[in-house]
Design a protein that fits this description.
The protein has about 220 residues and is of the alpha/beta class. It has helices at about 15-25, 35-45, 45-55, 65-75, 90-105, 120-125, 165-180, 180-190, 200-215, and strands at about 5-10, 30-35, 80-85, 110-115, 130, 135-140, 195. It binds adenosine monophosphate.
C-alpha cells in the first residue's frame, strides 16, 4: 500500500483528520491537511493566517488560489505516497489538482468518501476539543482525555476550535453540501470513488478503508 495517492472526502467532523494520521503513521503516506496548514498560519500570525482566519471563523472556504498553492508546494516535497485531508473542496480545486499531479508525475489512486449522518456530525463537533499547545485532538464522548479537559500529552487545558461553535458548524455543513459534495460524482465518474461508513471506532474505520481499497 506504500506509494498510494489518496484523497479523503467527507463533511466536517467525519473523521478525515484521524484517518489521515493513521495512514501517515502506519503506511508512511505523507499527510497533507489544508486545515492544519491554515491553522498553523493563523497561530503564527502570518499574512496567510490573517486572511484565512476571516474565512475559517465564518465557516466559509478559503479562496481556491490560496489552498491550491499550498497543496502544490506540499506535494512537491513528497517523494512517495500522499494523503490529502480536506482538499480538494471545490470542483475547481479538483481540476487544478489533476494538473498539478500530472506536472509532478504523480497519480491519484482513490477518493475515499466518509459517509456520516448530519446529526452525528453536529454531535461529534460539539464534543471535539483540541490542545492549543501540542494540537492533539480529543472528543469528550468517544476519545476523552484521562483527566477532565486536560491534554494527556502536555497537560494544557483543552479548548474548542472556534469554527466548531454550533452556528459555524451549520454553515460549514451547508458549504460542504453546496461546494464539496459535487466532487462525489466527479470522482465516481472516473471510477475513483471508494465509499466507507465512517461510524464507529477509528481502528474499525481504518481497517474498513484498507479492505475497500484492496477490492
Ligand atoms: P478542516 O480542518 O479541514 O475542517 O478545515 C477547516 C477550515 O479551513 C475549513 O472550514 C475552511 O474554511 C478552511 N479550508 C481547509 N481546507 C480548505 C480547502 N481545501 N479549500 C478551502 N478552504 C479550506
Amino acid at each position: 500500500m506504500e506509494g498510494l495517492g489518496l484523497i479523503l472526502l467527507g463533511p466536517p467532523g467525519s473523521g478525515k483528520g484521524t484517518q489521515a494520521e493513521l495512514f501517515e503513521n502506519r503506511l508512511g503516506l505523507k499527510k497533507i491537511s489544508t486545515g492544519d496548514i491554515l491553522r498553523d498560519a493563523i497561530r503564527k500570525g502570518t499574512e496567510l493566517g490573517k486572511l484565512a482566519k476571516e474565512h475559517i471563523n465564518r465557516g466559509e472556504l478559503v479562496p481556491d488560489d490560496i489552498v491550491v498553492a499550498l497543496v502544490e508546494e506540499a506535494l512537491k516535497k513528497t517523494s512517495d505516497g500522499y494523503i490529502l485531508d480536506g482538499f480538494p473542496r471545490t470542483i475547481e480545486q479538483a481540476k487544478r489538482l489533476d494538473r498539478i499531479l500530472e506536472k509532478l508525475g504523480k497519480k491519484l489512486d482513490a477518493a475515499v468518501l466518509f459517509a456520516v449522518p448530519d446529526e452525528e456530525i453536529i454531535k461529534r463537533l460539539s464534543a471535539r476539543r483540541v490542545c492549543p499547545k501540542c494540537h492533539a485532538v480529543y472528543n469528550m464522548v468517544t476519545k476523552p482525555p484521562k483527566r477532565d479537559e486536560i491534554c494527556d500529552i502536555c497537560g494544557t487545558l483543552l479548548i474548542m476550535r472556534d469554527d466548531d461553535k454550533p452556528e459555524t458548524v451549520r454553515r460549514r455543513i451547508e458549504v460542504y453540501r453546496r461546494d464539496t459534495e459535487p466532487l462525489v460524482d466527479f470522482y465516481r465518474d472516473r471510477g475513483l470513488l471508494v465509499e466507507v461508513k465512517a461510524v464507529g471506532d477509528p481502528e474499525e474505520v481504518f481497517n474498513f478503508i484498507i479492505g475497500a481499497l484492496k477490492r
